[in-house]
Design a protein that fits this description.
By secondary structure, the protein is of the alpha/beta class. Helices cover 30% and strands 26% of the residues. It has a domain at 1-86 and 165-171 and 197-224: Rossmann fold, CATH 3.40.50. Strand 1 (3-14) and strand 2 (21-32) form a beta hairpin. The longest helix has 18 residues, at 177-194.
């Protein structure tokens, strides 16, 4: 199985000089195509920082971070952009635009893809919303949806561009047990169908069962790679 995320000896600090705060310490981990990896660990252990580096959203300078065969350490903006285009992101807060319907929120992700007509974008987005069980809610605004439904819209939005990797940061934090589990189960099913790799950061021990592998980060180090 091909490796899509290959991190070797990654270290990262915030601040500089006397105020330097080491956050990630010599992290090594490889993640394969289609694998679902959950990263847990205490608050402040560096999980979000790690995710943003993998996602090309933060620049790191020490070690090696190969994502989809691109080196992100000391990389150019162009390389980060090309990696970001192949990644779907899901955040704790769904980050949907309130004035747009579920369908519009999903289809706007495809606007960069000039190869599709607007009609194709809408059809493709509707199909993805049906896949997450929201076929009856295409034209609802975020405020007219439950928290679990909103998070399912953001799952559809993350997957609609057929990314190679999905990065999720505490996607169930604002959900109750049942809707949280439902949302990540849908995410898992769709990811397995399309061999999408998932790296999901969570405090939520109730969803650990969806993982192929659980990795624990403590004080910037991986306990069980
Ligand atoms: N932009 C920043 N500038 C300075 N320090 C930061 C910044 N972002 C995070 N930190 C610090 O880095 C450490 C790791 O933060 P990070 O958000 O990665 O942890 P986390 O494991 O995701 O925590 P949580 O589970 O609470 O979200 C924390 O001590 C935090 O205060």
């Amino acid at each position: 199985m091909a490796i899509v995320i290959d991190v070797q000896g990654l270290s990262f600090s915030f601040g500089s000089g006397a105020l330097t705060q080491p956050v990630l310490k010599n992290i090594t981990i490889s993640i394969h195509t289609g694998e679902i990896v959950l990263m847990t660990g205490p608050s402040g252990s560096g999980k979000t920082t790690f995710l943003t580096i993998i996602g090309g959203l933060r620049q790191a300078h020490h070690g090696s971070v190969m994502v989809l065969d691109r080196q992100l350490i000391n990389s150019t903006e162009q390389i980060k952009v090309s990696v970001r285009q192949q990644i779907g992101y899901i955040f704790q807060q769904h980050n949907l635009l309130k004035s747009l319907t579920a369908l519009q929120n999903v289809s706007m992700t495809l606007e960069m893809q000039n190869s599709m007509t607007e009609q194709q974008r809408l059809e493709h987005s509707a199909e993805m919303l049906r896949a997450v069980g929201l076929g009856e809610r295409l034209n609802y605004l975020p405020d007219q949806l439950s928290a679990g439904q909103r998070q399912r819209v953001s799952i559809a939005r993350a997957l609609v561009g057929q990314p190679k990797i999905v990065l999720a940061d505490e996607p169930t934090a604002s959900l109750d047990k049942q809707s949280g589990h439902e949302a990540v189960s849908i995410l898992k099913r769709l990811a397995k169908e399309s061999k999408t790799t998932i790296l999901l950061v969570t405090h939520d021990y109730r969803i650990l069962d969806i993982a192929d592998r659980v990795v624990e980060l403590e004080d910037g180090k991986i306990k069980n790679a």
